[in-house]
Each structure stands twice: as C-alpha cells, then as structure tokens.
Description:
Layout: H1 2-7, H2 16-28, H3 33-45, H4 54-70, H5 74-88, H6 98-110, E1 113-114, E2 130-131, H7 132-145, H8 147-157, E3 169-171, H9 174-179, E4 184-189, E5 192-197, H10 201-215
Antiparallel strand pairs: 1-2, 3-5, 4-5
Amino acid sequence: xxxxxxxxxxxxxxxxxxxxxxxxxxxxxxxxxxxxxxxxxxxxxxxxxxxxxxxxxxxxxxxxxxxxxxxxxxxxxxxxxxxxxxxxxxxxxxxxxxxxxxxxxxxxxxxxxxxxxxxxxxxxxxxxxxxxxxxxxxxxxxxxxxxxxxxxxxxxxxxxxxxxxxxxxxxxxxxxxxxxxxxxxxxxxxxxxxxxxxxxxxxxxxxxxxxxxxxxx
Length: 217
C-alpha cells in the first residue's frame, strides 16, 4: 500500500505469502483440498501475461472446473465464481491493474468466509456468514468512488472544472506531469490533452479487506 501511494507500482509477488498462508489455514479449518488447490491455481494463473489469449482461457477453465466439482456446495461455488470474476477483471488490464487484481484475489482466497467481529453491532445480519470475496467487490467499488470527490476538489482548485472528465482526470499541465509522472496517464479527450489520474487503488483494497474481515461489511 505504501509503494502504491508513493509510486503507483506494487510488486505482485508480495501477495504470494498471503495466499499460501490463507490456503493452509483454509485446509486446516476443513476446506476440501481440491477447493484450496483450485483457488491457488487460478491465483497462479493471474501471473500469466494479461494480454495473451491463454489468460482468459485459464479463467474459463477454472469456472468450468468449479461448476463441475463444487455444484453440490453453493457457498464454495459462489466464492469460486466471485474469485473468477476478480480474475477476469485483469484481462488486458482494461478495468484494473494486474497487481490490483492479484491483491483482490489474495484477499478473497486468504479469507474466504468471515462472520466479522462487528456483527453484534448490525443486529439484522448478526447470524449470517457473508463470503468475503463478495464483500470485496462491493467494498472496493464503494471505496473507489471516494476518489471522485477528491478529483472534483482538485479540479476546482486548478480551475479545470469544465467537462465530464473532471471526475477522473485533470487538464494537462506539463509542470504537474513532470513532477509526478507516476500519478497520471496522458490521454486525449475531445481534442484536448488530459491527465487521467491513477488512483492508489491498493488503499481501497486494503480498506475493503479490513472492513470485510474485521466488521463483516
């Protein structure tokens, strides 16, 4: 998370120990070995080149295998489908960076189920066990939206408040880009150069995992 804020780059291999520890923990808690192995295998496939046809092919194979093997266990199958969705989000890195995808998958695999210490506060769901992978998608989406007000305020301060791009980008400023090239990606919008802001999504993912595991929300 620190390096994501500082440089917007994260070494994907830092998530490997978390997945290994989570897999061992899940197995010791009674998770069938075939489930653990399949989840670890699809995480390993996330290290394939995301722009290669083999990447989505591996994800499709995982989905078919999950349906065939886990159809009798609705909760495990549901988690497997969510993990597959997280995996597919890395295809060609159109929606998320591949490191972000690995971080989400690591959280989902490391904590497949959690009731959360915060459940007594939320009486309506105090007796439910909600799969963490499902919560990660919801939480990450909400946390990601929190960057929009920040960009709007930043645009107002820099007098770039016109146009729909103001919710995700800034007007091109050479000095700003040269000072912080890792924070922006230069693009074109209606004939104008803009700087698309690279949000430190690892912060949102960390907050999402913490909220899901600790509070069950």
